[in-house]
Design goal:
Number of helices: 17
Helix content: 40-55%
Radius of gyration: 26 Å
Strand order of the largest sheet: 6-7-5-4-3-10-9-8
Strand content: 5-15%
Order of helices and strands: EEHHHHHHHHHHHHHHEEEHEEEEEHH
Number of strands: 10
Largest sheet: 8 strands, antiparallel
Shape: elongated
Length: 500
């Protein structure tokens, strides 16, 4: 299996066209600067890096703006740039007026702050854009930095000014030209990190600062390859993402980025530490998907980390623990997530390239095939002794139980209505995707012991038990993804993937 590694382009960032559908409105990011290039590699499927939830979004044809997380009284970068472009005189200056603190500040404190401001301004003033558009944008950023420097001189504890200045420094880092006389991107990011550090000291609940601080640290880590210094930076980034999630748990973007940082860290740490970090990354991607079922980036990234785990497991000759998934099972799981990401974003070239190389790992013509323990069809309250472990198949139409006779013959099509179907004189359980209301884990004491699964439909709830909690996660994700693809009117794309 390891020879069929999905090829993903590496290099400069590609701007994704905004999806006009409301459900995609929260997903505006594009690939990171190292996720696409003119050439192709033979590496494993690369993570769909989302270094900024904010990330670069189309404005016109080629203009690229950065939109950061929004906070209390803080500007997003888009608001800042638009306001300054329009010549607006923001109320920000009035917010940063003299305070009792600033009036009693010692001369030494003021001088130290001035020196720090001057050092940051020198970095910003020396930046020259690569073209007229870049130079124009940098002039706006420079003007914004001057305003924030003045605000901080008046009140060194103004966390809003510190946060917004960090955003300006972070955006300026992306505006650095290839001119050898330009300041290094790393120096600007380091200065941004200092501002985020100060902002969070004065306002420890500023979750957007922790989030963007983690992004800046991650960008610095990427510049250092697989070195000890990079390892320490990735560890810092994961801690900041963790803090951001603690303060704002309802952020799939932060969870996705946290998973990406862990995935990068797993490639550097000693082998004995790798598996634990990879499993944690899987949990973060899965948590992001549970918050936003159509979050295609987290879906794809979960596929890539599972593929990497399959490669590692195969390399050591299979799973060490009998309860762990085999390499083939992991490859198949990986293909499910990559196929789902492609179905949600069929025109996204990165997903298309990866799918071409993992599609054969699916149990075609199905998306998923596995075992569940279920009661006799039509008798959900049957005694536990009557529940039987049998094979189920899932495709774009629904979930179907395979009878003992059918397992020895051809697989059935999913064409009848949800409920109990009769095939070869044997009743079986079947759930059509359009009939699904919800899918969840179930701890009902009336079920046999184990990882309970409940699929609530418009007709009745359907109860089953998975072989393990890990297996249950796979079934929950797969069924939810199939339903999400159906709800987004992309079932035909999924059908094309699994039926050819």
């Amino acid at each position: 299996m390891s020879s069929a590694n999905p090829e993903v382009e590496n290099g400069t960032a590609e701007t994704e066209e905004p999806d006009p559908k409301p459900h995609e409105s929260t997903e505006r990011s594009t690939e990171s600067n190292d996720s696409k290039s003119g050439g192709e590699s033979n590496a494993n499927p690369k993570p769909d890096d989302e270094p900024k939830e904010n990330e670069k979004e189309s404005a016109g044809n080629k203009a690229v703006l950065l939109q950061k997380d929004q906070g209390n009284r803080t500007f997003t970068m888009r608001e800042l740039l638009n306001e300054l472009k329009n010549g607006g005189d923001s109320s920000y200056d009035s917010e940063a007026t003299d305070t009792p603190y600033s009036r009693v500040s010692s001369q030494q404190q003021q001088q130290q702050q001035i020196d720090q401001n001057n050092a940051a301004m020198e970095l910003i003033n020396s930046i020259t854009g690569s073209d007229e558009e870049g130079r124009s944008r940098q002039r706006i950023l420079t003007f914004a930095a001057q305003r924030y420097a003045s605000a901080i001189e008046r009140n060194p504890e103004d966390h809003d000014a510190l946060y917004n200045w960090a955003l300006v420094l972070q955006e300026s880092a992306d505006n650095v030209s290839t001119d050898s006389n330009s300041p290094s991107k790393d120096a600007l990011l380091e200065e941004a990190c200092k501002k985020y550090d100060e902002a969070t000291r004065f306002c420890p609940t500023l979750h957007e600062a922790y989030y963007n601080w983690a992004i800046a640290i991650s960008d610095r880590a990427k510049m250092r390859g697989r070195t000890k210094e990079a390892e320490e930076l990735w560890k810092q980034a994961t801690k900041n993402y963790e803090k951001a999630v603690q303060l704002n748990w309802n952020s799939p973007q932060a969870l996705n980025n946290w998973g990406l940082a862990l995935q990068e860290l797993s490639a550097i740490v000693p082998a004995r530490e790798k598996l634990g970090i990879v499993k944690t990354a899987i949990s973060k991607f899965r948590a992001a998907i549970q918050l936003q079922f159509d979050f295609h980036r987290a879906i794809y990234n979960l596929g890539t980390v599972l593929y990497g785990l399959a490669e590692d497991t195969s390399r050591i000759g299979g799973a060490v623990n009998a309860n762990e998934a085999s390499p083939n099972e992991l490859y198949s799981l990986s293909a499910i997530y990559i196929a789902a990401a492609h179905a949600l974003k069929p025109n996204y070239s990165v997903y298309t390239s990866a799918l071409k190389l993992v599609r054969s790992m699916l149990p075609l013509p199905y998306l998923k095939v596995g075992y569940l323990t279920a009661p006799p069809a039509g008798n959900t309250i049957a005694p536990h002794s009557d529940w039987k472990r049998s094979q189920f198949v899932l495709n774009h139409e629904g979930l179907q139980q395979i009878s003992d006779v059918e397992q020895r013959q051809t697989s059935p099509t999913l064409s009848s209505k949800t409920g109990d179907t009769v095939n070869n004189n044997q009743s079986t359980i079947k759930v059509d995707v359009p009939d699904i209301v919800s899918v969840s884990a179930c701890a009902d004491l009336t079920l046999p012991p184990g990882a309970g699964l409940c699929i609530d439909t418009i007709h009745r709830p359907v109860f089953m038990v998975a072989d393990s909690w890990e297996s249950l996660d796979g079934w929950l994700d797969a069924i939810r993804l199939v339903y999400t693809i159906y709800a987004r009117d992309k079932s035909e794309v999924l059908a094309g993937i699994i039926t050819g």
